[in-house]
Design goal:
Number of helices: 2
Strand content: 25-35%
Largest sheet: 6 strands, antiparallel
Shape: globular
Distance between the termini: 38 Å
Number of domains: 1
Number of strands: 6
Helix content: 25-40%
Radius of gyration: 16 Å
Structural class: alpha+beta
């Protein structure tokens, strides 16, 4: 059953953006799977316009992807990167999250998915433990 979770997007526009995002989903899956990421949920199984991928490697784990910005008159997407690690002795989860681009149109994504994916991967891989300075307490 279709359910639109966005306040600033008509059902018709949602379906149009979803169809176009589905065009790039296989390309993004292929690129990110080579780098150890896996899709967290298929676009057609989700109520949101998001392509989200997770990874775990050694002590680090994270999430990267492209999501719709639900803002008035936006029609734009953001590419994001999140990288974390847990410190058991300090009982903290250290992380860094960054929106590496916030003004992507669906046309930008369609024509430049290879470069967007490359920037996502490069950003994630460039962050070292010392870069993950924000934290939340964990038990």
């Amino acid at each position: 059953m279709f359910y639109n979770v966005y306040k600033h997007l008509s059902d018709e526009d949602f379906k149009g953006l979803e169809a176009k995002l589905k065009e790039v989903e296989p390309t993004l899956i292929a690129i990110l799977e080579k780098e150890g990421f896996s899709e967290t949920s298929k676009l057609d199984e989700n109520d949101a316009l998001i392509l989200d991928f997770g990874t775990e490697h050694e002590n680090y784990y994270g999430s990267v992807g492209i999501k719709y910005n639900d803002l008035p008159d936006s029609g734009k997407f953001s590419a994001y990167v999140l990288k974390c690690y847990d410190s058991a002795e300090e009982k903290r989860r250290y992380y860094k999250k960054e929106f590496i681009q916030t003004d992507l149109t669906i046309e930008d994504i369609l024509k430049d998915i290879d470069n967007i994916a490359s920037r996502i991967i490069q950003t994630y891989q460039s962050w070292q433990q010392k870069d993950l300075s924000e934290y939340v307490n964990i038990s």
